[in-house]
Description:
This protein is of the alpha+beta class.
Amino acid sequence: MARKMVFIDTSLCTGCKACSVACKAWNDLPAEKTQRISSYQTQADFTPNTWTYVRFREEYKDNKMRFNMLKLQCFHCADPACMKACSSNAIYKTETGYTLVDKEKCIGCGYCVANCPWGVPKIDEATNKMSKCTGCIDRVESGIKPACAQTCQPGAIHFGDRDEIMPQAQARVAELQLTNPKAHLYGDNLMGGTTYVYLLQDRPDAYGLPLNPTTPISLTLWKDIVHPLGGIAIGASAAAITVGVIVNFVRGNYANRAKIIAESHDEGGK
């Protein structure tokens, strides 16, 4: 299957939260008790049972208040930090671009949680397994839109093949930039290119998003440099030991040493 893309046009989002409800309904995720955080936001963060929610950010300019509303879920990066960090190879990529977790392999180490630049993965304390948005991969592979895209009434969520959706997203940005120069795409060039790409009408931090999300340097150093070099060093050490044993055997060093030890033992026993 072709690589997929979900384009979220924040200029059309009304903050109805139907996407979050649809996600819970399709994935059989239980309801959770929430409380008002600010304005209309009642969900503070992802949880093992909340894979998508709407963030509301109020911004006052020229005596006017504007909502920066944003539907959040896993971005499904092309080069995901969570997969690089996973110590049990439980996280993998699909041909369609989604980043998924094999619950059978997950050991609940939490490295994915610590290294995701968006703080998406969460560990379920009840199962000690990581949980996050799957992108409705079961629907996608059956030719059906993700639940959030299917239910979005104002048409803010668009789904399809990346080659088809990306030109539409770029055209929409160009249209908005005629009246709002700040309009831009977010995610298309981040973390290798994300499956979920946003049209933002303001800077990323106005929505509570990192300006330049990256894989932590410590993780890159460990996985790409230190760990491979460690393996090479261990392999080189093992090879050196093996060669040394063979050389000493050929030279008869072990036999001579055994003879010397035996003679010393006999002399000591006299």
